[in-house]
Design brief:
heterotrimer, A alpha+beta, B alpha+beta, C mainly alpha, B: alpha+beta, Ubiquitin-like (UB roll), DNA polymerase, domain 1, 2 domains, five-stranded mixed beta sheet, 9% strand, C: mainly alpha, 8 helices, 2 strands
Chain lengths: 721, 159, 203
């Protein structure tokens, strides 16, 4: 795809003053690539992530304050993945300010700085890598040019450091430069600095939100408040497929603290003086639900079987089917993964204030634009009159890629004419999640005489991930055919195998399934890398060499081989049980970031104990290597949690369990005491970080357990018999 | 009751209102978090008379006359608690939502066990972190124990 | 004739003793004698009622045979690996009282009663027969040194024991199952059983 030449539009920079303590405001516009391209499946599997920004109106990116600090308005939200810090580093390096001088806030939709995509898919840093540095560099040049006017010197005689422009004899700060200027000459976008000149990019800078999070600052959506605020609660279904048919609110209306009962066509809610009073009144509302069928886990498991849904070929090299038809020994294995809950600690919810034809909504969201558009549509307001104020997320993981609860909060506020804060209970979170869909995999292979794979085919059957999400225009479904979220990680990455293919089977489930950190990568890699291990064992080959020999020799292949070799070497991988411990290896490539894990496992008191994980990953350029490590550590343990403990069931129509504890997750005691992360750099641009390490962990564990017990576990959560 | 060294009198119509909501919504101290409301996740952990308590399951009527410490009272930027200092040194938080609960639980542990073993940590620190920052947390807990014992001798000398 | 009788009596006496020594029955073959006080069936019924309560999960969950409290109607191990600790009250900093207060909490579903804790290990009943539980109950070495009066007081007046009849609701708001015998009936049964000598009925 040809690169459009990126240029700052020659629109004038606006300056707005008089905003509280902010002396000066500088805004910038930027022409981004066409939004249509993200709908094309190829994008997902490569690092080619365009940033889809607002191109129509001036947007606020940077503010310069009287104290000569810079506020970066980030269109990407911060949910723990460290995006704010990386963006600050990138901006500070080109803007020539110190890390102490730059702070990051969430860009409100009113600021115009809205992301047309989302915060998700491990794309934030890679998408903004070039744009934010170019914006910052251009602004620096503009400030220098204005400083030159101010100081009466030539621009090229000026140097900048820590937000201070110097002519050698005289200095002037950015704040002084910008003060009072109303018309700016837009400089040409300068050449960006060479990587080796960066002071912050590539360094393990401490998180910019660290202190707020350690000292308990009220930064999350759940912490939001507005004057004269009320509290709302909405009755949510507990059964799959339950449709709202009306409610008896007579008892609830009389309960203490109740301000108003709000009945809409699709839900009923209550507004009260306090959260507890709202919840108590909600409990007294009798809702009529209409559910056609009472589902059980076994029903879902039957629906999800390979062969039941709609098949789409997502990968075809050579002719695996033809090879299989020859009738020789074909090895077939099946794998399963369960329904997964997000279980993020901050529940979904919003604080909305609707006044006349305007609305302000404070909300933890990964899709500021969709949140705004959906609220505007339901309230019949102009989009410009709905201001979304994103808050720090107490966990995203894909849970907040759709936020219909914002609509509910807005309608409650509209009904009482005051701000209303409305959040889910934990039970409602567990029962109204947009789950990670359960999957079923059938893998087939034929080994050649030399033990290498002659043909391999991966069938993955899954509920929807991308389809049904408001992020994807409905037109994308027929174009794409297969759900690009469900087959993520589902292709065979061993390109040297002469015949390899992957087929994605689409199943429509009766409950909502969508994006869960790493999407199909977790289940797909578990299946494929377990199968690769099975084949290696059958062929009598060492699992490391078996893999390396079947990876193709192009750049992508070389990078994958490098991480496998690095992990194996650092872990001291041994394909045998020593002192009751065994190792397991697995590797995957996600969005052009290859990652390999070697786990070291023992079994104690019938429990799987993970002692050590060695992770080698090549995310390209690591903007903040410490935060990349943190994402690896977290992703590894979260992947372990899914591989060893987590599952949702369906019991008499209800998704269960509905509380932590029964929904078993990894705790402190389960976390490996040793996690070694080796970062390789195969390219000079930053790639995906947050999700790739989720891939290999399940299979690595299953492979280690096989060596310990001789038993192949093909279903997660892995359960010893 | 006394909250972070400040005396408060609150009038609640429902004496069984969980302390969590009084702290958050009446006293406007948002550092203590709601994660589940069922004492399962520990995000609501604070101290009552120096002991770790899950405030979502503690009726306000029991707080009469007690000393409550929340994350805001544990320490601040000018004077951080050793646990907070360690948390900063190890760069523990990711999304950060569960972290105050963990820090309060850890502070309580260090009060009782100045030099906790990994087993002590496994048994006592049982909150839920979905971002799974446990690996760094464990390091931070050991670091906090070291920082705390470094502080102690100085305090004894000056008192 | 007189000489024969004089000889026979000592002979018989000696023979009797010799027989007695050689055909001594095993102590275990003796059946305990149930003292017929006119109310033995009542006492047995009282024992059964008392045991119906003590073996119900409301009591049994905190009288485990290991160090792990049990929860719920299915008596699963306490979540999050909470366990006895050193003093029956949990771990050093994360204790029973971190979550359990002196009353049930209807919002969280966490049960509560004064001095909430595990029963001491000596009072572990899980897996024992009714007879064995009763033996442990009466044995001063395993019951905390209580005499009968103190036992009756503990079983009928202790607030943690009586919690079983007001066990509150669980996390879903569902009321916990009550013991099969009412509190009043239990009290009567305990008193009656002790009144009748605290006899453990045979099988």
């Amino acid at each position: 795809m040809s690169e459009k030449k990126k240029k700052i539009s020659r629109r004038k920079f606006l300056v707005r003053g008089g905003l509280g303590t902010v002396g000066v405001l500088a805004v910038g516009t930027y022409l981004f690539r066409s939004p249509i391209r993200t709908a094309i499946a190829g994008v997902v599997n490569t690092a080619d992530t365009p940033y889809m920004g607002n191109t129509d109106t001036p947007v606020i990116w940077f503010e310069i304050t009287k104290d000569n600090t810079v506020i970066l308005h980030s269109p990407k939200v911060e949910m723990g993945q460290g995006t704010f810090t990386s963006l600050a580093q990138m901006a500070a390096d080109e803007l020539e300010v110190s890390m102490e001088q730059i702070s990051v806030v969430h860009a409100t939709s009113a600021s115009g700085n809205m992301d047309g995509f989302a915060t998700g898919g491990s794309t934030s840093v890679s998408a903004l890598w070039v744009p934010i540095r170019e914006l910052a560099a251009t602004m620096r040049e503009m400030l220098k040019a204005e400083a030159a006017n101010n100081l009466g010197v030539e621009t090229n005689g000026l140097t900048v450091a820590d937000g201070i422009v110097s002519s050698g004899e005289k200095t002037i700060t950015y704040a002084e430069v910008a003060n009072g200027v109303t018309e700016w000459e837009v400089s040409d976008t300068p050449q960006l600095k060479p990587l080796e000149d960066y002071k912050f990019i590539g360094k393990p800078i401490a998180r910019v939100d660290l202190k707020d999070k350690v000292f308990g600052a009220p930064i999350f959506g759940m912490d939001a408040s507005m004057p004269d605020m009320f509290y709302g609660a909405v009755v949510r279904p507990s059964h799959i497929g339950a449709k709202y048919k009306g409610a008896d609110t007579s008892k609830a209306a009389k309960m203490p603290g109740v301000v108003k009962i709000v009945e809409e066509e699709d839900f009923v809610g209550v507004v009260a003086n306090s959260l507890i009073e709202a919840e108590n009144a909600k409990a007294a509302i009798k809702v009529k639900w209409d559910a056609e069928k009472t589902w059980q886990t076994s029903d879902i498991k039957k629906l999800i079987e390979v062969g039941k849904g709609e098949a789409f070929v997502i990968q075809k090299e050579g002719d695996a089917k033809g090879v299989f038809e020859d009738g020789d020994t074909i090895i077939v294995s099946e794998y399963w993964s369960p329904i997964g809950a997000h279980a993020q600690l901050e529940p979904s919810g919003a604080l909305a204030h609707v006044e006349g034809d305007k609305a302000t909504v404070m909300i933890s969201t990964q899709v500021v634009n969709i949140t705004r558009d959906e609220i505007a549509k339901r309230l019949n307001f102009d989009k410009e009159n709905v201001n979304i104020v994103p808050t720090f997320l107490g966990g995203g993981f894909g849970r907040r890629l759709h936020t219909p609860n914002g609509i509910q909060a807005a309608l409650l506020s509209k009904a009482v004419g005051k701000p209303v804060k409305c959040f889910f209970t934990r039970k409602e979170e567990f029962q109204n999640d947009t789950f990670r869909p359960p999957t079923h995999h059938v893998l087939k292979a034929k080994l050649a005489e030399d033990g290498m794979i002659e043909a391999i085919e991966h069938n993955v059957s899954s509920g929807d991930v991308a389809f049904g999400s408001p992020m994807l225009p409905s037109i994308a479904e027929p174009i794409l055919g297969a759900d690009l979220g469900a087959w993520r990680g589902g292709m065979i990455q061993y390109g040297a195998i002469p015949n390899h293919s992957a087929i994605s089977w689409r199943v429509k489930l009766p409950f909502a399934t969508s994006w869960w950190r790493s999407l199909g990568l977790l289940a797909n890699t578990f299946a494929i890398e377990s199968f690769m291990d099975e084949l290696a064992v059958k062929a009598g080959k060492n699992p490391v060499e078996f893999r390396l020999a079947q990876i193709q020799d192009d750049e992508r292949g070389k990078r994958l081989k490098s991480v496998i070799e690095a992990a194996v070497e650092k872990a001291g991988y041994k394909d045998e049980v020593i002192d009751g411990r065994a190792m397991g290896l697995a590797a995957s490539t996600d969005a052009n970031t290859p990652c390999a894990h070697v786990v070291e496992v023992s079994i104690e008191n019938k429990e799987i104990k993970v002692h050590r994980v060695t992770c080698a990953m090549d995310p390209g350029l690591a903007v903040n290597p410490d935060q990349v490590r943190a994402q690896c550590e977290g992703s590894i343990i979260m992947g372990m949690s899914a591989a060893l403990f987590e599952k949702m069931e369906v019991q008499d129509g209800e998704l269960t369990p509905t509380i932590y504890g029964p929904y078993q997750m990894a705790l402190m005691k389960h976390a490996p005491k040793e996690i070694d992360v080796i970062l390789l750099q195969g390219t000079d641009t930053p790639g995906a970080v947050g999700e790739p390490p989720m891939g290999p962990i399940g299979a690595a564990l299953a492979n280690a357990i096989f060596r310990l017990t001789g038993e192949r576990l093909r279903e997660i959560p892995l359960t010893l018999t | 009751m006394n909250v972070n060294g400040v005396s408060h009198t609150v009038n609640m119509t429902d004496e069984n209102t969980p302390l969590l909501w009084v702290v958050r919504d009446v006293l406007d101290l948002k550092g203590t978090k709601f994660g589940c409301g069922k004492a399962a996740c520990g995000a609501c952990t604070l101290h009552v008379d120096g002991e770790a308590v899950r405030s979502c399951s503690y009726a306000i009527k029991f707080a009469e006359g007690k000393n409550i410490t929340t994350i805001e009272g544990l320490g601040n930027e000018e004077n951080p608690h050793p646990v907070q200092q360690a948390w900063i040194e190890e760069v523990v938080p990711q999304c950060g939502y569960c972290q105050p609960g963990f820090m309060m639980a850890t502070a309580a542990l260090l009060d009782m066990v100045p030099n906790p073993t990994d087993e002590d940590i496994d048994k006592n620190i049982i909150n839920v972190c979905r971002c799974a920052t446990y690996y760094r947390m464990r390091k931070a807990i050991h670091r906090a124990a070291a920082l705390k014992s470094e502080k102690q001798p100085t305090e004894t000398q000056s008192s | 004739m007189k000489a024969k009788i004089t000889f026979i009596l000592p002979f018989l006496f000696t023979a009797g003793i010799i027989l007695a020594i050689n055909i001594k029955p095993n102590p275990g073959e003796y059946q305990p004698i149930i003292y017929e006080s006119g109310n033995s069936s009542e006492a047995k019924e009282a024992f059964d009622k008392m045991m119906d309560v003590l073996t119900h999960e409301r009591c049994m969950n905190c009288h485990p045979n290991d160090n792990v409290p049990k929860q719920g109607e299915d008596s699963h191990p306490h979540y999050f690996d909470m366990a006895r600790g050193e003093n029956n009250m949990g771990f050093q900093a994360t204790k029973c009282t971190t979550c359990h207060q002196k009353e049930n909490n209807n919002y969280s579903g966490v049960p509560g009663a004064p001095h909430w804790s595990l029963a001491p290990a000596a009072m572990g009943w899980q897996g024992l027969s009714r007879t064995e539980i009763a033996q442990k109950l009466l044995n001063k070495e395993t019951n905390g040194g209580k005499n009968h009066a103190e036992l009756i007081k503990h079983m009928t007046e202790d607030e943690l024991v009586l919690w079983a009849w007001e066990p509150g609701v669980d996390a879903n708001g569902t009321p916990r199952e009550l013991p099969p015998v009412s509190k009043a009936e239990f009290k009567t049964a305990v008193e009656l059983w002790f009144e009748n000598g605290a006899v453990i009925p045979s099988k």
